Amino acid sequence: MMRRRVRAALVALSTALTVLVTASTTACGPVSGSRVLTVFAAASLTDVFPALANRFEKTHEDVDVRLHFAGSAQLAQQIAEGAPADVFASADAETMARLERDGLLDGPATPFATNTLTIAVPQGNPAGVTDFADLVDPDLTVVVCAPSVPCGAATRRIERLTGVTLRPASEEADVRSVLTKVEAGEADAGLVYVTDVAVAVAAGTVERIRFPEAAEVVNTYPVGIPVDAAHKDLARRFRDLVLSDEGQRILREAGFGVPS
């Protein structure tokens, strides 16, 4: 039987309208009468949530899981404006808490993973970056996430912790955009999650520069179910998979930490 597996999309917020841009698709064709489970997930989950979606589809053959990836703040705004999401996985607790305070979640969200920042540099590290303090060099082109998104908020916390104030060339809407600029050689360094840089290091497109202060700034990822979810029963099952031993194993293998 032919069926669509996973559609991964980037969701961008414009001033006038919502745009869902398909990032990658693995599809053979939908099953007639199949149910669609729509999962909004932080951009830093792009490399791991497809594995969870595929696992879910294997045990729910009549379900087509559609994954939409973007910055957590963008996705939360989309949900607040009525976008059809059954599950929301954020890269920080505060973004999810805002939805909960506004009565937009069906019950409390549950932490499922943690992540920390690291420095990504182009292959060969041509600028010779060795630690966080190096990023203030005015001759370097440094990119970071915007303060409104979790990776940007974490960057600000590291700045306060270290007393180092960055002057980035650009502030991106999500962590994948930061990584893309470093991979393309458009930046000498960028602050990204360790999980994102691990995939790029394995692909040989960037190098990772560790710095000790990063371990003190930890983002906790919660998963929640929007109050207007169309398939709440399926959403709870997907959430349960994320929290299960199998789901946690998949996340650990991708480099995510265990929530406290």
From TrEMBL:
Keyword Signal (UniProt): yes
An example Gene Ontology molecular-function term: molybdate ion binding
Domain of life, source organism: Bacteria
GO terms for biological process, alphabetical: molybdate ion transport
Keywords linked to the UniProt accession: Metal-binding, Molybdenum, Signal
Chain positions recorded as molybdate binding sites: S44, S72, V175, Y193
Keyword Cell cycle: no
Signal peptide as annotated in the record: 1-23
SUPFAM superfamilies found in the cross-reference section: Periplasmic binding protein-like II
InterPro entries reported in the protein's UniProt record: ModA, ModA/WtpA
Family listed: Belongs to the bacterial solute-binding protein ModA family.
NCBIfam families (alphabetical): modA
This protein's name: Molybdate-binding protein
